[in-house]
Amino acid sequence: MKRYCFGIDIGGTTIKCGLFDVKGTVLEKWEIPTRTENNGSYILPDVADTISDKIRERDLDREEIAGVGLGIPGPVNEEGEVPAAVNLHWGYVHIVSQMERLTGLDVKAGNDANVAALGEMWKGGGAGYHNVVLITLGTGVGGGIIVDGQILTGTHGAGGEIGHIHITDSVEENCNCGNRGCLEQVASATGISYLAKRRLAKDDAPSILRSREITAKEVFDAVKENDAVALEIADEFGKYLGLALANVAGVCDPEIFVIGGGVSKAGPILLDFIKKYYREYAFLPCKETQFALAELGNDAGIYGAARLVI
Amino acid sequence: MKRYCFGIDIGGTTIKCGLFDVKGTVLEKWEIPTRTENNGSYILPDVADTISDKIRERDLDREEIAGVGLGIPGPVNEEGEVPAAVNLHWGYVHIVSQMERLTGLDVKAGNDANVAALGEMWKGGGAGYHNVVLITLGTGVGGGIIVDGQILTGTHGAGGEIGHIHITDSVEENCNCGNRGCLEQVASATGISYLAKRRLAKDDAPSILRSREITAKEVFDAVKENDAVALEIADEFGKYLGLALANVAGVCDPEIFVIGGGVSKAGPILLDFIKKYYREYAFLPCKETQFALAELGNDAGIYGAARLVI
User: Fold this and answer.
1) Mean pLDDT score of chain B
2) Sign of the torsion angle spanned by Cα atoms A97, A101, A103, A106
3) What is the ipTM of this complex?
4) The whole model's pTM is what?
5) Residue A153: its chain B contacts at CB < 8 A?
6) Other beta carbons less than 10 A from residue B188's beta carbon
7) Please, what are the domains in chain B?
8) Cα distance from B50 to chain A (closest Cα, Å)?
9) Residues of A with Cβ-Cβ distance to B252 under 8 angstroms
C-alpha cells in the first residue's frame, strides 16, 4: 500500500522539499540550495540524493512511496518535458524520465504556479473546491487554473498565465514579456508601486505615502489608515484585477478565486477592492463566485507537487 | 457492438436531428419543429418519438445504439440538469434522466455552444486538435471551449461565455446581459452593424456603406471592395475580438481558435483582421496559435451532440 510521497518545489535559489503521507499531512519539510552552475546539471541529482537520504534516514519502505512530484519554474508539457527554465539555467530537460531514472520512483512534474494552485485546492484557500483559479501577486502576477481537479496546462504551457492579459492602454512602459499594458504591470507588487508613483506624480494631494518608501505593503498600510490617495491607488488596482478576473470567469468559470503571493498579506481588505469591480464586470451567472486568500504561503508548491503523484 | 448514435440539437424553433455511425459519418439528417407550448413539455417526448420512429423505419438493433446526445440552448450541469432554458420555455428539467426514461437509451446533454465546439473539434475546422476554442459570431457571440477533448463547462455553465467579456468602455448602451461593453456588443453581427453606424455618424467620410443597409455582411462586402470606412470598421472589430482572444489564450491556451456563425461567411479576410490584433496582444508563447473558419455550419450541434455519447 502506498503511504508516502515527496513534494519538491524547485526554485531559482532554493529547493523546497516535503515528505507527506498520502492524505496530505506534511511529515517533514526541509530545503536544499539550488545549484545552477554547469547549466543546472546538479539540480536533479541533488534532489534525488536528498530524497534518497530521507528514505534511508527514516527507514522508509520504497514500496510504500507513491512517487515524487516536482514543481518547476517554467513550462512542463504533457510528456513531462521542460523546453527551457531560465531561472534554473536549463535548456531542454526531460525531467520526468531523468528523475525516474535517478530515484527509481514514479515522478510527475508541473509548472510551479499551476502546482501551487493544485496545492491551494488540496489543502489551502481552495480546499473543498475542484474548480479553482489561484492568482499569485508577487514581483509578477502568476496564475494557475484547476478544472475538475486537474491542472489546465494549455498547449504552450501558458494556461493560467493571466499576468500577461492585456488590461489597460494607460501604461507606456513595456512589460518583461515585451507587450504593454499587461495585468502584471498594474497588479503585482511592482505594479502597485508603479500605480502609486503615477498617482502621486499626478498632483500634490496630501498623502502619508509621500513620506514613505513606495511599496505595495505601504500602499495597503496607508489604505488601512484611510489615506485618500492610497484608497484611490487600491481602487485602481482593484479595477484592473477585478476586470481581469471577471474575464477569466467568462472563460473558465471557477468556483473560487484564491489570491496569494506577498501582496495578499494585506489581508481581507485586498479582496474588497477586487470584488467590487469583479462583481461590476462579471457575467451574471458568475457574479457570486467566491474569493479567498491563499493559506499555504510558500508551502503551496510542495503540497501541490505531492498532490501530483497521489 | 455499438454502431450508431443520435445527435440532437434542440433550438428555439427547430430540433435538428442526426443519425450517425460511431466513426462520425452522418447517415441521415432531419428536422422537427420545437413545440414550446405548455412550458415546452412536448419537446422531449417529440424527440423521443422521432428517435423511436427512426429506429423502427431503419430497423435498427437497439443494442447497437451507443446513445443519444443532446445540445440545449441553456446551461446543463454535470448531473445532466437544466436549471432553465428560456428559449424552450423550460424551468428546471432533469433532461438526462427524462430522456433516458423516454428512450431507454443512454443520454448525454450539453450546452449548445459547447456541443458545437465539440462538433467542430471532431469533424470541422478544429479536426485533429484536442484543445479548441470555438467562437460563434451570430446575433450574439457564443463560445465553447474544449480542453483535452472535453468540454469546459464551468461551475455555473458559463465556461466559454466569452461574448460577455468586458472589452471596451466605448459603448454606452447596455448589453442584453445587463453589463456594458461586452464583446458581444461589438463583435457579433449586431455589434458590427453597431460599429458601422457609430463610425458613419462620426463624420461625412465617403463610403459605399452610406447607400446600403448596414449589416455585418455589407460591411465585409465593402471591405472586399476596399472601402476605406469599411476597413476602419473591420479593423475596430478585429481589435476587440483579437484582444479578447489573446486574453482567452492567457487563460486556457488552446491549439486553435475556430470562428463560426453567420459573420464567418465573410471568409478568410475576417481572420486577417482578428489575427492582426491577436498577435499584437497575445502572450509570447501563444502568438502563433492557429485560426480557422468553422466548417460544419448549422450541423456543428448535431455532430457535437453525437460525439457526447461516443
Assistant:
1) 95
2) positive
3) 0.92
4) 0.93
5) 253
6) 26
7) 4-119+299-308 (3.30.420.40), 127-294 (3.30.420.40)
8) 34
9) 145, 152, 154, 159, 251-252
